[in-house]
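Continuing the series of single-chain predictions for the mutant panel. This is the parent chain; the variants come on the following pages.
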Amino acid sequence: MLLYNVTVTIDLDVHEDWVRWMRETHIPDVMTTGMFLSYRMCRLTGHDHADSEIYTMQYLVKDMAHLVRYQEEFAPELQRQHSERYQGKYAAFRTVMELLDHNERL
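Parent structure:
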């Protein structure tokens, strides 16, 4: 199992709209691809940027084949939509982590 982690720093002037759009549109579109098993959206706390918020979206993916398929077939269009909507208002980077162990109890 892998975690596909997307970290986004978003300007405060579009922050509320961005959170709503991520919850109502972007994340559902990502999950509809069928490439991910689950996701979580987290907000970083304790950072000292007065003009932005930082979020991570963590998508659980079965294996590298599913992630590569997502990156090749679906990500370009989804990232284009995000970029067009929030151009100049965000910075993003992506990482892939191997999930070694977990125990979730929410």
